[in-house]
Fold this protein.
Amino acid sequence: MTGGERGPGPPGGRRAPQADGLPFRPPVPATARAAARCAALAAALLGLTGLTGWFTDTEALKSVLPGYAVSMKVNTAVALVALGLSLWATVREPARPRAVAAARAASALAVVIGVLTLAEYVTGVNAGIDELILDDDTAGTQTGAPGRMGPNTAVALTLAGLASLCAGARRIPAWAAQVPGLAVGALGMLRLYGAAYRVPQLERFGAYTGMALHTALALVLLAVALFLARPVEGLAGLLMNAGTTGALGRWLVLTVVIVPPLLGWAVLAGEDAGLFGPRLGTALLVAAHVAVFTAVVFVTLAVGRRVEVSHARLEWQVRQNALLRAFMDHTPAVVFIKDLEGRYLAVNTTFEQSLGLSRDQVLGRRDQDVMPSALARRARASDLAMLASGRPLQRQEVLTLPDGPREFLSSLFPISDASGTTYAVGGVVTDITERVAAQREVERSHRRFTALLESAPDATLITDGDGTVVMANRQVRRLFGRAPEELAGTRVVGLVPAARRRRHAALLGAYLRLRDPRPTVLDRDLYGMRRDGSEFPVEVSVSRLQSEQQTLAVLTVRDITERRRLEAERAERYEQQRRIAYTLQHSLMGEPPRLPHLPSAHRYLASVQDPGVGGDWFDVIPLDGRRTGVVIGDVMGRGLEAAAVMGQLRAASHALARTGAAPGALMTGLDAFVGDLADQLVTCLYLVIDQAAHRVTLCSAGHLPVIVLPPGGHARRLRAPVGVPLGVNDSSGVRLRFEEATHPLPPGSTLALYTDGLVERPGTDIDARIDDLARVLDRELAGARADPQTLDRAAARLVGALTPDAASHDDDVTLLLLGVPHAAG
């Protein structure tokens, strides 16, 4: 509610909206705005009617009385439509930004039309706007320039446009739109009076074009819309309010609007009968009466407004007194007011209940008349002490009541008049027994908390949200060499080496800004500093403590110098074991031979969860002629045990391959070998590349498919039957055969063999990952010669693309690329 809409009233009470202290019934403003919208829309329709008459050449629409009455000009019709729509959008609630902008543009258009027309009359220069839209064919029967509206119409449209702009600007007073609106209405009424009283001098001024009848009616409607656009402000607020001023104003305006025209009609009727003077004098007399009566109405309203505001202020003061009485009666404290002689002037309900006396038994009596003598003497002494000092007095005391001793907080204060002379004593007595008991419990809790803090084995500091130490226990002296009381009020980062303070402060600030932080232990790169400046590594446990006033941080600090020393020793031993295991792994896998007729490249990454050893292996075995056996396998599990099984299987597969065993027979032999090992499961794939016959024969025991990149083609899977993993036949009791498959292998092809550590990731589809591997292989080697250097670069890129975080993978990764060169190579 704006300042102009505030008025007195009880908090929470329902009342009519107010402006300038005047009350309004809720339906009235809404009804007034609806009337303003209807009037604006009707004015726009009248303008649209005239405009339609010009476009359709319908004389009845151009003029009310074709051939006799003045026609509405095209520019007039355009301005009326613009003003009507502008006011309709301005009064509409809620106002939309686009509608407001359009309304202002329409008002500005009307102003421009009116101002340019007036400029034509003043300067005598034709600006070319009169027949800008249509040629005027009515000039022959009327006086004036073709298509040019009358000067009175131009003045009215200019005033209406300016008033419409003011009505839509809430920062401009409402009267800035209402006063020009009344002037617009007066110009329109003059034309209507001229028609009603048959006075042609009111239709036009001098030898200029006159005003059409429906133009006059539209101006009157625009005046109504302008006046009611803001019904609770300005002149309209004086007329529409529910108080005395509103009622008086409405009667006066009704009188002004109805009585003078009736009087004028009666006078003209008498003149027609030969009883009175000229018609013109009578018409002007009636118009003057209307103006005078209107001025009288608003002067009367201004007087009535002052009366109404004074009345409202008086009612507000009465309500304030009632609110004060209600406040005193509903407060749980004892409240009283005495005169300077100690007689009670006012007491509340709690006072009555505490003494067991009614208000009538207390008012006008002194303390000794209504309470025990000892208590009365103490009360009077307190009153006199407060009056002697001239300042409010507050004291806490224990009083023995029938239900036992109670603690009270008494407040006494002087009450002065406007001149500053003290004429009464006010008092408020509050029972604070429970509050004092709670405060004592808080003090006991604080002592218990302090004892708990001091019993902690580590240095503990409590800081506020800015990192300032509020409290510290005695252990900080042992850890930092500084007393607890010395640290209070200092920044906790002062216990950190200077070069590390910014980081430590940022960590604490980030923790305290969390919405719901949990206790956290930090021990990475955190250091403390003793009094002598020496640094030492620390572990800090941080948690948040929410007090009533602020957020606190509890920091528990522990010296971890010894822990860091032991961790360094363990890390050194682990590194030694890792190097030994790495050597063992490479000795078991060996280095595949470099065959000039079969270039190859490989990559092996051990799992980071074990000391560099795993169960993946591969081998390239030269056979007779240009035949080569290739085996790749994966022992389930990790660590030294998997590496040991891998070493045995590598040796066994190498031996079986050198005997010339076919892939299926080799897989059957390995299956029997694994069956002799307890609880082992192995996936394996063996293939024989026959470069002379340009083919490859392979057999799979549960292993992932081989990817082949043929010359001039795209990488794809090499289809082959997939048997069960090695070691399953023995445990299942059913012996399953390992089937072989043979495929053409043209020169220039590239084969990719790998283990699941390369393509398997939690939450991903392994088939999609294999397709990714094929796409990367296709991108890296399509159209390239299969020489060792090219294969080595491609192997590095394949592992980098599919294992981007090599430092955190949790499975062994093995990749082998084989190139089948052309016969010439």
